[in-house]
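A reminder before we start the practical. When you read a complex entry, don't treat the lines as separate problems. The point of joint prediction is that each chain is placed relative to the others, so the output describes one connected object in space. Small molecules and nucleic acid strands, if listed, are placed in the same frame. In the example below there are two entries. Take a minute to note the order of the lines before looking further.
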Amino acid sequence: MIPIEHFLILAGLLFIIGLVIVITKKNAIMVLIGIELMLNGANLNLVTFSASDPNIGGQMFALFVILIAAAEAAVALAIILNVYKHYRTSNVDEVNELKP
Amino acid sequence: MLALIVVLTPLVSFVIMTLLKDQSEKILGSTAVLLSGFTFLVAFILCLNLIIGDNVYQQMEWFSLGEGLSFNVGFLLDELTAVMLLVVTFVSFMVHLFSGGYMSGDKGYARYFGLLGLFTFSMLGIVIADNLLLLFIFWELVGFSSYLLIGFWFEKPTAVLASKKAFIVNRIGDLGFVVAIMVLWSEYGTVDFLSLQQLNSPDSFWMSIAGIGLLCGVMGKSAQFPLQVWLPDAMEGPTPVSALIHAATMVAAGIFLLARIFLILSPTVLNVVAIVGAITAFMGAIAAINQYDIKKVLAFSTISQLGYMVMGIGVGATGGAVFHLVTHAFFKACLFLSAGAVIHWMHQHLDHNSDAQDMRSMGGLRKYLPLVFITFSVSAMSLAGLPLFSGFLSKDAILTGVLQRALDSGNTMSFVVAFLAFGSIILTAFYMTRQVIMIFFGESRSNAVSAIQSKIKFPISMRIPLIFLSIGGTWLLFSTNPLSGSDSWLMTLFASDFERNISHNVHLTVSIGALLLSISGITFGYLRFRNNPLSGEGVGLVNYINQLSFNNWFMDRIYQIVFVNATLRIAQLSRLIEVQLVDRLVNYIGISHIVLSRVIGWGDKYVVDGMVHLTTSGIHTVGRIAKSAQGDNVQRYIMTALISVIFIVGSLACYAIWRG
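Here is the predicted structure of the whole assembly.
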C-alpha cells in the first residue's frame, strides 16, 4: 500500500501552501482560496488517520469540515462583497482604518 | 554775676539784630552801639572790682563721666581777664560806633551788627573761661564769627575764598589744640588752668607735647609762621571788622592763651615759641614793605607785631607781651579805622572801576583828611616805636626781655632771635614811613581829588573812635614816664620774675638801641620815598626782596603746590582706582549674575525638561513598540500566530527530547 507518510506530507504541503497564500496574497479572493486549501489539507490529514480507525471518526469529521467550509466560503464571499462596496477595493492591505 | 552780664550782652545784641533786621539803619545802629557801650561800662566796673578786690573763681559741674570723673566749668577772673575785658569791650565799642557811619547804605546792616555782637560774645567767653575745653569752645566760636565776618560781602568770590581759607587754616592749628587737650586730660586728669599751674611739672615729656599742641593752636589763631597765610586774605572783610578782629582782639586771643598757660610751658617749648615768634616778626615785616594795598600793609604789620608778642612770651617777658598786646590793640585798631576812613573817602570820590584801597592812586590826602592824618600818624609813630608813644614802651619791654635772655643763655638761637627782633624794628619803621608818605604826602596821584576840592567832613560817629583810639597810642594811658616802659601799671601787674630782674644796663642798651634803629628806619624810608613814593622797582637784590615781599614769601604758592595739588592728585588717583577697580568689580558681578542665570536657564531647559522629555519619549517608544504588534494588516496576525505556534511547539519538543 501507499505508505502513510506520503499522505501526511501531501496534507502538510497543502496546508503550508494554503498558509503561505493566506499570508502573502493581496487579493481577498486569493486569501479565501488559501483558506480552502488549508481546509483541504486538514481534511486529508483527518481522512488519512481515519483509515486506521475502526469508528471512521476522521471521515465523519472531514464531512463536517467540508460542510462548514462551504458555509464559511459563502459567508466570506458575502463579506468580501460588502467590503468591496464600502472600500472600492479588495486589497487586504488597503481595507484598514486602524492607524499604525 | 557782672561777668555774666558782660559776656551775654553782646549775645543779646546778636539776637536783637536778627529779630529786628528790617528796621531802619538808625534804630539798628543805635541799638547796637548802645548795647556795646553798656557792655564796656559793665566791664569797666567789673575790672575795677577785680583790680582792687580779689580774683573771682567760680565753678559749677557741667557733666560727669561716672565716678570721680566730673568736669567743672566756670569763670576765672583775674587781672589778665580784667585787662583783656577792658581792651575787648572798648575796641568793640569804638568799632560799633565807627561802623554805624562806615557801613551805612550796606544792605547787610543788621547782619553786620549781629555778627559783631556774636563775635564780641565769643571773645569775651574766651577771656573768662577757666579751663581749656571751655576756652576751646569759644575759640572755635570766634573763628566761626571771623569766617562769617570776613565773608560778609559774600557775593564777592574773593571774600568767600578768603573766609574759607581763614577758617581752614585756623582749624589746622586747632588740631594741635585738641591734641593738647587730650594729652592733658589723659595724663593729668584736668584741663583747668589753676589746677594745671599747681601741678608744677613743666618739664615732663607729655607737658611739652601739650605745650607744642597749644602752640599750634596759637599759630593758627594768631597767624604765626607757618599758618600766617590767612591774615592778608582776611582783609576782604569790611575794614572795621579788620580793626576789631584782625588787629585788636581775635588774633590777640592766641597771646592771651599763651599768657594763661605760661606756667606750664617747658623751656624747650618756650624756645620754640620764641623762635616761631621771631621768624614771624621778621617775615611779616619783610612782606609789608612792598605791598600797595593799604590794608595788606597793616595786615602784615599785624603778623609782625603778633610775632613780637609771641616772642615776648617765649623769652619769658610775659609782662611785655601783654603790654604790647594792649598797646597794639589801640594803635592797630586806630590804624585800621583811619585806613577805613581813607577808603570811605576814596570810595566816594573815585569811579567804580578803581580800587579804593590801592595806595598807588592816593597821595596828598593830608590836605583833605586832616584828622585822619593826625590819628594815622600818631598810631604809625607808636607802631614804629618812637618815644612819647605807647608802642615804644611796650616794644621796649619785649626787647629788653629778648636781649636779657640772649645774654643769659648765650646760645646762638637766642642771639638769632634777638637779631631778628631788632632787625624788624628798622623794617617796621621803614614800611610805616613809606605808607604814611604814600597816602598823605606829595601830590595826588588819583583823578579823584581834582573833582572835589573841599574837605569832606566825616560824621561824628566815625571821628570819635579815631580820636579815642589814638589817645591809646600815646604814652598817656600807660605810664607816667613817657620814656620807660617798666613803670607802667601793666608791667606792675604782669611782669614775670625774669623781667623784674633785668639789669639796668640792658634796659638802657635796648632803649637807646631801639630808638636808633627806629630813627634809622624812618630816615631810610624818608630818603627813599620822599620824592618818588612809588619807587618799587630795583635791580638785583633789591628787586628780589621786593618780589619776595610782595608775594608774602611765596607761601601761598608753596602751599598750593605742596598741599593742594598733592591732595588733588591723590583724589584723582583714588577716583581712578574707584573707576577702574571698584566699578569694574561691580560690573563683573553684574555680568556674572547674568551668566549664572543663563547657565541655570540652560540647565532648566535641557536637563530638567530633558528628563521630562526623556520619560515621555521613553513611554512613547514603549507605546510605539507595543502598538507595533498591532498592525493594519490581518495577514501579519496570522504570521505572528504561526511563528508563536512554531516557537511553542518547538520549545516543548526540545523540552521533551531533553527530558528523555
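Discuss with your neighbour: The two ends of chain A are 54 Å apart (CA to CA). What might explain this?
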